[in-house]
Every structure is written in structure tokens, then in C-alpha cells.
Amino acid sequence: MKISSREIKKAGLKTWENFKRVIPAILSIFILVSFLKVVVPKEFYAKIFSGIPILDALIGAILGSISAGNPLTSYVMGGEILDQGVALVAVVAFLLSWVTVGIIQLPAESLILGKKFALVRNLVSFVSAIVIAILVVLTLSII
To answer: Are 57 and 90 in contact, with CB atoms under 8 Å apart?
Structure first.
């Protein structure tokens, strides 16, 4: 099957449109991370996280749940948090809950999908973030 130049052009334009749509999100996370690096001292992270893996996963999941983020920017955010000396289990729990749990969006989600569904989905996502974070760290320690 041969792809025509018209299809290639159409795909290129679609890619460009998607890229333009994503640029504000990327720039905003870079600005946020830069701001946090300047404003928040490294000691802050040491005070929040205990060094106890299960507790750090819980704290990370709670912080991620009350924040709102998207998968694209989570990679940058995760790297910056790791650079601050936060344990991997806390970072994984934070990122998973940041992307999957939506406390901020809960009222809108409840209206659209129903209160019970929204609550159960968010609870399952929260618990899953903690379990997956612990499993990721355990898996990496085995390898």
C-alpha cells in the first residue's frame, strides 16, 4: 500500500496542530518546576517524606491526588522530584495519583458520570497508585 503525498501532508498538519496544542502544557510545567526549584528549599521534601516506603507512597499519593496533572508533563515533574532526593516509591505514587486521581475534578466528574462511580473510580485509582508504586520499587530491587 502506497501512501500518497496528500496523506503525508495531512498527517504532518495534524501532528503540527497537536504539537501546538501541547506546547502551553509543556511550557507551564517548565515554569512551575522552575518556580518550585527556586521557592521550595530541598529541606522541604525531607520534612514531608519520612523515608518509610509505605508512608512515603501514601504521602505521595495524597499530594498527587489533590494536584492535577497530565501524563505528558508528569515525566518532567517526576525527574525534578527525584532530583530533589525524594524516594522513587513516593515519586511513582505521586505521579500515578496525579494523573489518575482527580480530587479537583471530582465535582464535574460526579455530575457527568455519577457520584458513586466518580468516588469509586478515584478510590480505586488512589489505592492502585500506592500498590503499584510499592510493586515498582520491589521489582526494581529484584532486578
So the answer is: yes
115-127 confidence digits (pLDDT tens): 999 999 999 999 9
Bigger pLDDT: 47 or 9? 9
Dist CA 14 CA 70 (whole Å)? 21
Beta-carbon contacts of 69 under 8 Å, excluding residues fewer than 6 positions away, are 77, 95, 98, 99
Burial 85-111 (b: 16+ CB within 10 A, else e): ebbbbbbbbbbbbbbbbbbeebeebee
| Pair 108, 92 in one domain | yes
Same domain, 29 and 48: no
d(CA 14, CA 84): 37
User: Which residues form the domain of 117?
Assistant: 41-142
